From TrEMBL:
SUPFAM superfamilies xrefs: P-loop containing nucleoside triphosphate hydrolases (SSF52540)
Organism whose genome encodes this protein: Williamsia marianensis
Positions of the UniProt region annotated as Disordered: 149-198
Listed Basic and acidic residues bias regions: 187-198
Domain of life: Bacteria
Name the record gives this protein: Uncharacterized protein
Length: 528
């Protein structure tokens, strides 16, 4: 990268994804902003966060911490569990059958991970029968039954044999005699048979009691204090199968004293509970699981400026410290986070603009700073360069991902016109009932819309609850220096603006003007 200053060269080289970082560095690159303290407890928990917020980093960090204390920590990526044909195609089999295949593969990976941990550290085992008990876990996963029609047939065969003839005997002696007799007879032979033919398909037959017993037996022979299971990418499991996976965890794993389960999920794409045959199955948040942790609470700039600023300053410094920083910096010395900003940015305002542009997503932060460092060349990164980099990342990655989603792109354009151009704001309110609308979920997943606050209410809308959503920084950066530039998050009745969302509810006097009306949007596209 010719022409880059040492600090910009180092910033441009930062890995963007956790799986591309070397494992020894994950501990260093995960910044403890209080998240680790909340997660590092034996309670079963869900860690929520959008794509790129660092859930994988967090689990890798916690797993390394638990291993250092002598526990077994297993990180399972649910994207690698099962096969596409067996899980993703609803027409291929019933949800129960697809869930069974998922669980068999998951338990198989769990068994292999426990076995690998023991092979690496033989002090974890105090029982010579450990391998046999681990293998027993495999046997309870191989029970197969055939379901379908049973055809039974009976066959009966009867045969009869007849014979007749004349018998002649002559005997020569002093008194010759002749015997003449007739003989006839019959022989009956009966044969019967019964056959049974099963016509159907093989299905896995998992017995939760047997699985729980096998897992308990494995845990008993381990000297380790606890087995930590980190289930990453929960939302990659098909929504209709997630409750079955939750029910399995609830019945087989969570009741076991030595097991702790942590789940990383995207809230809008998670389905922990369902009703099947008039019975509730799955996990109940807050009851079966401990407190849910949201990474957005620590990283979103709006309303958390100081916390977000410190998080991203620490993130960038530790990434540089864990990479080839000494080589990249040349003669420069970077001892702390202040040095990074002093050497890499024109001022603290430029760094704050970078944090704001990331919208609380560390992966986007790293991509934007990498682009900005490349554009800055030998100069420090300025506010204008941050805005250009954010615009480029928004257009090349986020909007590009919506290329095949015409209605979702139409909704985004409609929101930009209604919220930014007309109201000169960048936030709007969404009713809780609309949170899982497919179009909103699509835009949320593409990271062009962001949830910054939850649970708002208005005095003139009693009984209704709203969440505060914002439009991505990259969508309105073009309008910053125009008459359409957003003045804040909300526009009030008197044409003043609220610059942040951390304000008393009663100050949102004109909240009805900022409520998303999906019906109006759908009517607008029907007119074309």
């Amino acid at each position: 990268m010719a022409g880059l200053s040492p600090i910009n060269r180092a910033l441009a080289r930062i890995p963007k994804r956790a799986e591309k970082s070397e494992n020894p560095h994950l501990h260093e690159t995960f910044v403890d902003s209080g998240v680790a303290d909340i997660l590092d407890v034996v309670d079963h928990q869900v860690l929520n966060g959008r794509r790129g917020t660092g859930k994988t980093h967090a689990f890798a960090y916690l797993a390394s911490e638990r291993r250092a204390l002598g526990d077994i920590a297993i990180v399972l990526d649910l994207r690698t569990v099962g096969s596409p044909d067996g899980l993703l195609d609803p027409s291929a089999a019933s949800p129960q059958e697809r869930a069974g295949r998922l669980l068999i593969d998951l338990l198989g990976q769990l068994r292999e991970a426990i076995l690998d941990a023991v092979l690496e550290d033989e002090t974890l085992v105090n029982d010579g029968d450990f391998v046999a008990k681990v293998d027993h876990l495999l046997t309870v996963l191989t029970d197969v039954r055939v379901t379908g029609e049973v055809e039974t047939s009976q066959q009966r065969q009867s045969t009869q044999k007849e014979h007749s003839g004349l018998k002649f005997n002559a005997k020569v002696s002093s008194s010759p005699t002749v015997d003449l007799s007739a003989e006839a007879g019959a022989e009956d032979q009966k044969v019967s048979s019964r056959s049974e033919t099963r016509r159907g398909t093989e299905q896995v037959a998992l017995n939760f009691s047997d699985i729980a017993r096998a897992l308990r037996d494995v845990a008993k022979v381990l000297t380790t204090r606890r087995i930590w299971i980190f289930l990453d990418e929960w939302s990659s499991v098909p929504r209709d199968l997630q409750p079955y996976l939750g029910e399995f965890l609830l019945r087989c794993v969570m009741p076991l004293q030595k097991f702790t389960v942590k789940i990383a999920a995207i809230e809008q794409q998670s389905n922990f509970m369902a009703v099947v045959a008039q019975e509730r199955i799955g996990l109940e948040l807050g009851a079966d699981l401990g407190a849910t942790v949201s990474l957005d609470d620590y990283m979103v700039y709006e309303g958390n400026e100081d916390v977000a600023r410190e998080f991203f300053r620490g993130l960038i410094f530790k990434h540089l410290s864990a990479s080839d920083a000494p080589e990249a910096f040349g003669d420069l010395t970077v001892r702390n986070t202040s040095d990074v900003i002093r050497l890499g940015f024109t001022d603290t305002r430029a760094f704050d603009e970078l944090v704001r542009a990331a919208e609380g997503v560390p992966r986007d932060f790293l991509h934007i700073v990498s682009r900005a460092a490349t554009r800055a060349g030998s100069q420090p990164i300025s506010v204008d360069i941050v805005r250009e980099a954010a615009k480029y990342w928004y257009q090349s990655d986020k909007v590009e991902a919506l290329e095949s989603r015409e209605q979702a792109r139409a909704l985004l354009t409609w929101l930009i016109d209604k919220v930014i151009r007309e109201k000169r704001a960048r936030a709007f309110l969404v009713r809780e009932d609309d949170m899982r609308d497919p179009l909103l979920v699509t835009l949320f997943d593409a990271r062009v819309l962001h949830v910054v606050r939850r649970g708002y209410s208005a005095q003139d809308r009693p009984g209704e609850r709203f969440d505060v959503w914002t439009i991505d920084y990259g969508a309105y950066v073009d309008l910053v220096r125009t008459k359409y530039a957003p003045q804040g998050l909300f526009q009030l009745e008197d044409d003043t603006y609220v610059s942040g969302v951390d304000v008393p509810t009663q100050d949102l006097r004109a909240i009805r003007r900022a409520i998303l009306d999906l019906d109006s949007f759908r009517q607008s596209i029907e007119t074309f």
